[in-house]
C-alpha cells in the first residue's frame, strides 16, 4: 500500500467488478459466516499482527530525546504556483503534507500497520464493511478551533467532488462518510472483505470546513491555508521558496506516533532550476541536506572544501528496502508500441552494463522486478498458489510466464552488441518492421520508426543520448528532449509523450494503489500513474487478488503473479537502483540509533545545537 499524501496521485483506485475478477476474488476471500462485533483498537494491521501494543511510547526508530528547534534549508527543483495540493490545477509547493494531520499514520517497520494520530481508536468488523474512527478531543486547528467529525466528513465529500479527479476512483468503494457524533466518524463500504479499505481511510488528510467555506476549493491559491499539523506556512515567495515553521503549541506533540518526529524549528525549501544548481547551493552552504541520485555526480562532484573541513558530511547508508521500479516507459496508446515484440526488441537495444561501467562508475544494480528486494519478487518459474493464479488466466497471459524465468538482455559491457542487435531486429521483423535504406520501417504502412525521449532533468540526457546511439544501429531515429518541469508535468498528465522515465514506489503491503499503477480503469484517466496505458483484463484480475488477499501468503503469491505478468509483457525497460542512500549534509544533524526499515526517516532527525555552535566557530 503506497500511502496517499496531499498532492500525490499514488494509490488512487477504482474497485473492479468484472466476472473474472469476482470469480478469482471468491477464491481468496475469507468466508466470514458472520462478522464479530467490532472492538476499539489503538491501531490496525492488514493481517492483525500489530508490532506496537496499546501502551507503546514511541516507534523504535524515533528518539524521545530528539531536540526541537533549529533551521533547515532544502532544495526543490522547478517552481510552484499553488498551495492547495488536493486539486489537479497548478503546481503544488513541496512539503504541504506537513500542515495536515491524518486519522492514522503508517509505521515504518511493519508491512502495513497504522496507529492513531487524529484517531484515538479504530473499529472495524471481520467483514470490513465499515470502519469508525474515534477522534481525540484535544485535536485543534492552528486557529484554536476544535477539529471534529464534521471536518472529516466535509473533507471526504469535498475532495471527491472538487479534488483531483483520481480521488473519485480512489474512494469509489466508499459508500458514505457520516458523523455519528462530534468525535466519531464512520465510513461505510459498498463491498466487504477488503482488508485494506479501513487502513487507507486512515490516511485521509483532514481539512477545516470552517476555513474553506466561502473559498473556491478547486482553484489555485497562494494564500497559506489552515491546517492542524506540526507545521504551518510562515513565508511564501511564489515560485522561489516556501518556509514552514513548527507550531509551538502543536496539539499532537506528545502522541506516541509523534514522539521524536518533526523536530526542525523551520524548514525552508528553495527552488532551483535543476539538480546541478542545487548541488552548487550545497557547496556554498545555502542548503543543508541532499540525497544524491546521480552516480556520476556522487563519484566526481563531492570533493570540495566544505567536506574536507568537516562542515559537510558525505555518507553512504545501506538501503535494504523494497526498491523503486524505475524505467523507460513506452506509451502503449501509440500504435507503434502496442506490439509486445516491439517493446521486447527495444529492451534488447539497451546496454546497461556499458552504461554502468562508463556512466555510473559501477555503482548501480539492474532492477529485475517491480518488487525488487522483497519476498514478492517473482523468481524462477511459478509454483504453488502463484501457479494456480496464472493457470486460471492461461489464455490471457504470455505463455512465457509458464516456461521461462524473466531475464533482462545483458552485454559484456564492451559496447559491442551484435548478438543483441540481431535479436532486436528479429523481433522487429516478426512485428512487421524491417530496415529499409537504414531506417526501421513498417512493412505495411511505410511508417518510419522514430522515438522521442522526454525528460524533466538534464541528468537523463546523457543516458538518453547513449541509448539513442544503440537505437540508431537498428534504424531508429531517437531524439532526446528536456523540457521545464511545468511543461513536463502537464504533458505527462495528458499522456502526451512517446518515451519518458517513470518510477513506482511499492510498499511491503501492496493493494489498492495497484489499480492506479496498472489498472484498465486508469489507463486513460488524466493524472493517473498508469503511465504506459495498460488495459489488460488479466492484470486487472490479479490486482483484485492482491487487494482482497486474506493472508500474507496469499498477498505474496498474488504480488508475484502480478510482477511476473508485468515483466513478461515488457511494458518498460527497467533501469537500476543503488543499494545505498547517498547523502551529503551540513554537519549539524543528529539522528536516532535505529533507522526505519522502509526508508531513510529524515523527519526523525534533529538539529544538534552543539554542532551548530561548532560550525559557527
Defining key terms:
617 residues; alpha+beta; Dipeptide-binding Protein, domain 3; four-stranded antiparallel beta sheet; 19 helices; 25 strands; globular
Concise structural overview:
By secondary structure, the protein is α+β, with helices and mostly antiparallel strands. The protein is built from 19 helices and 25 strands.
Walk me through what this model shows:
The protein is α+β, with helices and mostly antiparallel strands. It has a domain at 325-577: Dipeptide-binding Protein, domain 3, CATH 3.10.105.10. It is built from 19 helices and 25 strands. A 4-stranded mixed beta sheet has the order 2-11-10-9. Strand 3 and strand 4 form a beta hairpin. The two termini are 46 Å apart. Residues 7-36 have low confidence and may be disordered.
Secondary-structure blueprint:
Layout: H1 19-28, E1 43-45, E2 71-77, E3 104-106, E4 113-116, E5 119-123, E6 130-135, H2 149-162, H3 166-170, E7 174-181, E8 184-189, H4 197-201, H5 209-212, E9 231-237, E10 241-246, E11 266-272, H6 275-283, E12 289-291, H7 295-300, H8 305-308, E13 312-318, E14 325-330, H9 340-348, H10 352-358, E15 365-366, H11 384-391, H12 400-403, H13 418-430, E16 433-436, E17 439-442, E18 450-455, H14 461-472, E19 477-482, H15 485-493, E20 499-504, H16 513-518, H17 537-548, H18 552-568, E21 572-574, E22 576-577, E23 580-586, E24 589-590, E25 606-607, H19 609-616
Helix pairs in contact: 1-17, 9-13, 11-18, 17-18
